[in-house]
């Protein structure tokens, strides 16, 4: 399956046109006739999605910090959630326990049966 072809895909338009032409000209009984073109289209969509995700996530850390600061202001707090967790002794203890467990190669499942 592929995404709808009627929305704009400027990077993949040649592949879309080729697939539409193949579907229009090839027999419906030869269902494998357009496989290579479809494969090229899938690869193009994969590259398009990768590029779009890179654009969306380009300034993710900065946006996250801004949102946390705004949330702290909204809830009348002087520190962000990350700063709160850094000071929370119980959380730090649990975090260290988890790090040690992962270094030893155990899973959360095995902790119930040991």
From TrEMBL:
Keywords: Disulfide bond, Mitochondrion. GO terms for cellular component: mitochondrion. Its main location: mitochondrion. It is found in: Mitochondrion. Belongs to the CMC family. This is COX assembly mitochondrial protein. It comes from Nitzschia inconspicua.
């Amino acid at each position: 399956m592929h995404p709808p072809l009627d929305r704009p895909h400027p990077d993949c338009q040649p592949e879309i046109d080729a697939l539409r032409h193949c579907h229009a000209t090839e027999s419906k009984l030869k269902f494998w006739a357009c496989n290579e073109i479809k494969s090229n289209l899938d690869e193009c969509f994969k590259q398009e999605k990768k590029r779009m995700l890179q654009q969306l996530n380009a300034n993710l850390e900065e946006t996250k910090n801004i949102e946390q600061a705004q949330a702290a202001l909204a809830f009348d707090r002087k520190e962000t959630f990350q700063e709160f967790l850094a000071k929370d002794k119980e959380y730090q203890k649990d975090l260290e326990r988890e790090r040690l467990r992962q270094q030893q190669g155990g899973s959360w499942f095995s902790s119930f049966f040991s």
